[in-house]
Amino acid sequence: MRHRTLGAGGPVVSEVGLGTWRPLSRDGRRGAARLVGAALDLGITLFDTAGSYGDAEEALGIALRGVPREAYVLSTKVYYEPGGAVAGLSRAAVRAGVERSLRALRTEQVDLLSAHRFDDGTPLAETVAAFGELLQEGKIAHYGFSEWTAHQITAACAVATEMGVRPPVASQPQYNILWRVPEQAVLPLCQDLGIGTVAFWPLAQGLLTGKYAPGEPPPADSRAADPTGSRLMDHLMAEPLLERVQLFARLARREGMTPARLAVSWVLNRSGVTSALVGASTPQQLAETASAAGVLLPEPTMELIDRIFAGCVYDDVAGTG
């Protein structure tokens, strides 16, 4: 496993991080301990969670008991209440969310606290001030944001400078071969500002593993077959796209890789990306995606991937390009 520094002055994190939205919120404490143990054995040091991920924070905190605190980086988020209701980013909401996370994670400090979404109902200065207070108190070491626009990021950095608050170090956007919206403005802006990128859904919610075959129902244990996950995947299950994915899987095998490894490698080879968050149901799945770290993809392979998915890539919020 290779490691990179997150942004300008952020923590050193593994190139592949473990996202806990589904793996730790659904598999119970025993399954969480097994997966977290496997992650540590693979050299994964970045663990990303949120108070809205069911009992994932609690399960992660228990799974990490006994592990030296300096051996891993804890990343969590505020904005949503437990259960998914919107709490927002007021000073009170941010503080309440952090206190809940610290208790659940059984720690005195979160290494990275991110605003899960932007809060139009709270003055940005109030949110930045809340992060600044938590930095001063040592309850968080760094902060960032998830799914913010370039305009919102620019405004937050300007406010932080005006208020004398340390700037954010991390952006957490959805980013994968099919969803390239961050390339238009967010990724280049973050590079200019010294903000690292931690990409989530590098496998397009599992689509790029090649497990969904055209003309066949989704596997029983897959996200597309799950009532909670399927609503997020409906737009990905079109037959023409599934056929492209099969071509991608064929390319991966030709390159001596699984489709999952190639998809995560693609993300890690993109300019400005520090780390990619992956989920897994088993230690074996995690080992497969973790092996993407350190893989350098030749330019002809990157170009061929572009050709395979030409016309199917979302590169702006309006649709495909």
From TrEMBL:
GO terms for molecular function: oxidoreductase activity. Keywords: NADP, Oxidoreductase. SUPFAM superfamilies: NAD(P)-linked oxidoreductase. Transmembrane segments: none annotated. Residues 16-308 form the NADP-dependent oxidoreductase domain. The keyword Glycosyltransferase does not apply. InterPro entries: K_chnl_volt-dep_bsu_KCNAB-rel, NAD(P)_OxRdtase_dom_sf, NADP_OxRdtase_dom. Belongs to the shaker potassium channel beta subunit family. This is Putative oxidoreductase.
